[in-house]
Amino acid sequence: MKKFMLGVVVYMMTMTVWAAGSGLVGPATIKTMYVNGGWTQVRAPELDASNNPGEEAAYNPSGCEKTYYFAIHPSDDNYAAIHSTLLSAQMAGKKVSFWLDGCGGQDGAYPYIRSVWLFTD
């Protein structure tokens, strides 16, 4: 019963967060990484909102214009840690989840990664 209640509480908190324009997506495998001087973008097709009809808000909580990449910026305090985690995950074929908040990347059009979870199983 305690696990069920914990699950309900976490679910309700997540739904509240999504309504506020941020949220957790994943897990998924990174298929493409695009590095530029002004941003790094990764692509995980399972997380593309256009591949999940009816669930767009869950995969694009900030309502960004485009959803097939997820972005980070070199000016972020945690850029080096997130960048190396994303690269490691892609090279090892491991799954990741992202905490998204806002839009960024090329033309500020993609969901913005604030943190990353790396799965080893």
In a nutshell, what does this entry contain?
The protein is of the alpha+beta class and 121 residues long.
Question: What is the topology?
Answer:
Elements: H1 2-19, E1 22-29, E2 32-35, E3 40-43, H2 56-59, E4 70-72, H3 79-92, E5 95-104, E6 110-118
Antiparallel strand pairs: 1-5, 2-3, 3-4, 5-6
Observed structural traits:
alpha+beta; three-stranded antiparallel beta sheet; 3 helices
Describe this entry's structure for a reader.
Strand 5 (95-104) and strand 6 (110-118) form a beta hairpin. 30% of the residues lie in helices and 31% in strands. The chain has helices at 2-19, 56-59, 79-92; strands at residues 22-29, 32-35, 40-43, 70-72, 95-104, 110-118. It starts with a helix and ends with a strand. The chain has three helices and six strands; from the N terminus they run H-E-E-E-H-E-H-E-E. It is of the alpha+beta class and 121 residues long.
- Total strand segments: 6
| Residue windows where pLDDT falls under 50 for at least 5 positions | 3-19
Number of helices: 3
Specify Rg, calculated over alpha carbons.
14 Å
Mean pLDDT: 85
Main sheet: strands, sense, barrel: 3 strands, antiparallel
Shape: globular
Give the spatial strand order of the biggest sheet: 1-5-6
Instruction: Tell me the fraction of residues in β-strands, as a range.
Output: 25-35%
Order of helices and strands: HEEEHEHEE
Specify the structural class. Answer: alpha+beta
How far apart, in Å, are the first and last alpha carbons?
27 Å
Helix content: 25-40%
